[in-house]
Amino acid sequence: MMDLKEKLVSSFLAFENNVDFEHPIHDIRAEALKNFEAKGFPTKKEEAWKYTSLNALQKKDFSIFPKQESILEYKNVKKYFLHEMDTYKIVFIDGVYSSYLSETTHDGVDICLMSSALTKPMYKQIIEVYFNKVASKDESLTTLNTAFSREGAYIYIPKNKVPKKPIEIVHFSTGNEAALMLQPRNLIIAEENTELQVIERHQSLTENEVFTNSVTEIFAAKNAIVDYYKVQNDSKTSSLIDNTYISQKSDSVVSVHTFSFGGKLTRNNLNFYQNGEHIDSILKGVTIIGEKQHVDHHTLVHHIEPNCESHQDYKGIFGEKATGVFNGKIIVDKIAQKTNAFQKNNNILMSDKATINSKPQLEIFADDVKCSHGCTIGQLDEEALFYLQSRGIPKKEARALLMYAFANNVLASVKIPELKTRINKLIANKLGVRLGFDL
């Protein structure tokens, strides 16, 4: 049997024929495939992948092109949407766009499909300016996605516009294939003085294996505000590699919240590039996993110009034989004086078989900066536990409440109340807390 790399490389020609050889991004795709072919999948020999192995995934016989289109009834998947509020929706089933479940718009803003943006002449200029401009040209999984990029969400918000409601990007996999590989590509552009909220979710509907290799490029122009929320609560047979690249211009604020509760293997590569002054980048995450789950957060914030800020706050709770990785890198260029970069990673190990590998990295070439990083790994506070028990709360509930309080403070900066309530409930369920109060 061919391994996954060979299968992907040999499938590329069929893919290109399928999507039109004369395509404007044909050269970009071909170049990206060459890079992937030269590098292959990352291995544990690479420093950035030291604690995360993709060997098991490469041995699986993943279907690369789903054979049939699947139909889903809204009532059967309603719970995966933020149905408590009105949103735009870009929905994919096994990698294929579902117009039935989606609600897109061209009313002053473009909230639609990557496949349309890549093929229709009216988008050509924007694709030429933005597509593949901040995504890495040599990170192998990003180049693999670029080679096969065809479908995903395309969001373009012109100057001074604000969409009427938040946007949900949802990927369902139905289990029609024994094992399926998906490679969604998102392009999100917020021009000057715009505001945007996006919620992204990948959801398997069966126990069949799914491997998603996703790339998102986000461009925030001057004064733009972008809030991006990733809800990762998939089944234990799903693996997700998420590469997100963000380019910010002066006075923009971009925040990314990552909630990792589900999935077998999850790797989040989150890269911020600050191309201007008075920029704020906010990276927050809550990871709560057990069994043999594995979540790896790799963050990079590159401070290129003066007077900017970045704030990172990642919390992790690891039970049973779970493994967590946090690798946070801050680079401050020589001219990036008056930078204020803050990074915190706090972890609780609930079992002596759980593991966390945490590695904060600072590369500072400027002298007038405030940069701090802190990392803690420990058990629950026994004194606090004793205090709660002395007030009549049983030990199991007391432990759950302490964990809930520990994880919950990351939610303070979530700006969509309905999402905050939903995540609160997910955290409570995951920890076995019965919330006797309204959120």
Give the gist of this structure.
The protein is an alpha/beta fold and 439 residues long. Helices cover 22% and strands 37% of the residues. It has two domains: 4-394, no CATH class; 395-439, no CATH class.
Record the SSE blueprint:
Blueprint: H1 4-19, H2 26-39, H3 55-58, H4 74-77, E1 88-93, E2 96-97, E3 110-113, H5 114-119, H6 124-130, H7 140-147, E4 153-157, E5 167-173, E6 179-182, E7 185-190, E8 195-204, E9 209-220, E10 225-232, E11 238-248, E12 253-260, E13 265-274, E14 280-289, E15 294-303, E16 309-318, E17 323-332, E18 340-349, E19 355-364, E20 370-378, H8 382-390, H9 395-408, H10 417-431
Parallel strand pairs: 1-5, 4-7, 5-8, 6-9, 7-9, 8-10, 9-11, 10-12, 11-13, 12-14, 13-15, 14-16, 15-17, 16-18, 17-19, 18-20
Antiparallel strand pairs: 1-2, 3-4
Strand order of the largest sheet: 2-1-5-8-10-12-14-16-18-20
- The percent range for strand residues is 35-45%
Structure summary, number of beta strands: 20
Low-confidence stretches: none
Distance between the termini: 52 Å
Estimate percent helicity.
10-25%
Radius of gyration: 21 Å
The structural domain count equals 2
Oligomer: single chain
Main pleated-sheet profile: 10 strands, mixed
- Average pLDDT score: 94
Instruction: Give the SSE order as H and E letters.
Output: HHHHEEEHHHEEEEEEEEEEEEEEEEEHHH
Total helical segments: 10
Silhouette: globular
Structural class determined from secondary elements: alpha/beta
